[in-house]
Amino acid sequence: MELSKKVKFKKSKTILQIIGLLFFLYILFLPLLIVGQSSDVPSSIISLIDSTQKIYGSNDLLINGKVYYQPNRMAKGTPFLFSPIFEQGTIFTRGLSFEVAGLNYNIVDHELILLNITADGAKLHIKLSNILIDSFLLNNYLFVNLNELNISSNYPYMLATNKGLYYFLIGYDKEFVNRYSENDPYGKFSGTKKTLFLVYDSALVRINSKKTFLEYFPTIKKEISTFLKKHKIKLSKASPEQLKQLMEFCNNQMVKSYE
Fold this sequence. Notes:
By secondary structure, the chain is an alpha+beta fold. The protein has helices at about 1-35, 45-55, 210-215, 220-230, 240-259; strands at about 65, 85-95, 95-105, 110-115, 125-130, 135-140, 140-145, 155-160, 165-175, 175, 190, 195-200, 205.
């Protein structure tokens, strides 16, 4: 009798274990069953994941942003720096570089936007996280993340003019002007505002005038003034190429002064 009870107990225990295992397997594979059967999963999302993996492989460092919807699309002008057209670019993150077919920089909200074309031809704009982007190339200009330079600024990205001990960083801004008229029934985006900074001894110094700039190079002040006059460079209107030329000259002159 006692032996019979033990046998029944063991059988009951075995049945419970089997039921528990089946329940575990059901829970484990339930998400796959739902995705496979549900018509609620948009094909564009599946295509986005698929095409993203094709572009970036198994590396998910760039897959950290949200789908971007441009605000005030009917407004005159564009929130982007150079043009509304998405250009080829390069993104640098954690020692890796990614060549991308469509990139643009929104300087109203200071957001880097990636254009992704899915396998079914749909275009999706993705807002990339500032946290993971070290720098990026756009229109052959290098924009750096200020956090990577340990420099505090309201700009997440700024254009770096050159390499060297001393260099300029340029911050760009636009704003949406919500004044409506017959010519601008949906408002408009302002023109581009440029703010110039000198990186000097790892500090960010705003340069408002030639006089302010020369104060940081007292030993070669005369040479810089001659250079600016010769090349007809005005700091407030200078292009990134002119500023690069100026800073390369300043770096070379400073090296000579130390010899």
